[in-house]
Each structure stands twice: as C-alpha cells, then as structure tokens.
Design goal:
Protein name: Arachidonate 5-lipoxygenase-activating protein
Largest sheet: none
Structural class: mainly alpha
Order of helices and strands: HHHHH
Main location: endoplasmic reticulum
CATH class: Mainly Alpha
Shape: elongated
Low-confidence stretches: none
Number of helices: 5
CATH topology: Four Helix Bundle (Hemerythrin (Met), subunit A)
Radius of gyration: 19 Å
Number of domains: 1
InterPro entries: 5_LipOase_AP, MAPEG, MAPEG-like_dom_sf, Membr-assoc_MAPEG
Pfam family, one: MAPEG
Keywords: Endoplasmic reticulum, Leukotriene biosynthesis, Membrane, Nucleus, Transmembrane, Transmembrane helix
Length: 138
C-alpha cells in the first residue's frame, strides 16, 4: 500500500490527473521501484511458505520480516539515485537464498525420514535458528 500510494502521489504531482505512465524521471523511478517490488513478491511468498512449512517457522518468520524491511529500504533507495538501492537489493537476495535453503533442507529431511528413517529436524531447526540472526549483518 505504501508503494502504490507513492506512485499515485508522484503521478498526481507530475501530471495533475490520474495515473499516467509518461512523466518526469522521479515518477519513472517510483513506478519502476513499485514494479520491481511487485515482481519479486510472489517469489518471496513461495519460499517463505515453503521454509515455514517444511523447516522451521520462527526463522522463516524472522527472515520474512527482514525481507519486508529490506524491500522498504530498496524502494526508498530507488527514489534517490539508483545506486542507493543496490544494498537493499543484495540484502534481499541473501534473505531469499536463506529461505530457499531452508526449504531445501526441509525437503531433504522429509526424504531422509521417508527412505532411511533418520530424522534431522531438531538439528535443522537449531542450525536455522542460529544462522537467522546473521541475516542482520549487512
């Protein structure tokens, strides 16, 4: 809602009427940042749900909150110079990778239980809980 509100505000500020795609460079930056965030959101939701369901809910929820904060930082950085959005983008990629690896670990644990009867769920939860605070390091 924040991103869409910024696009609408910038559109009205530049053109005076409803949402227009042609406008100033500030409108183009806001619109592009909003589109980038919208395109990344389905991937984020998929890996967040998979990590939470298949591995551990608490580290997945923590990583999800961090991702939302990072996307906000990316969006605000994109409003200035495009190079200001790079740290938010790279940080977001690292969080998505963490969630993806959590999902893979959960799937591997399921197959280890199914084929070999070995359950490593406690070890995986301990590792992900220990690694998740490292996401705070830029």
């Amino acid at each position: 809602a924040f991103f869409a509100n910024k696009v609408e505000h910038e559109s009205r500020h530049c053109n005076g009427k409803g949402l227009q795609r042609q406008g100033s460079s500030s409108f183009d930056r806001v619109y592009t940042a909003n589109q980038n965030c919208g395109h990344a959101y389905p991937t984020f939701l998929a890996v967040l749900w998979c990590a939470g369901l298949l591995c551990s809910q608490v580290p997945a929820a923590f990583a999800g909150l961090m991702y939302l904060f990072v996307r906000q930082k990316y969006f605000v950085g994109y409003l200035g110079e495009r190079t200001q959005s790079t740290p938010g983008y790279l940080f977001g990629k690292r969080i998505i990778l963490f969630l993806f690896l959590m999902s893979v670990a959960g799937i591997l644990n399921y197959y280890l239980i199914f084929f070999f009867g070995s359950d490593f769920e406690i070890h995986i939860k301990t590792i992900t809980s220990a690694i998740s605070p490292l996401l705070l390091i830029p």
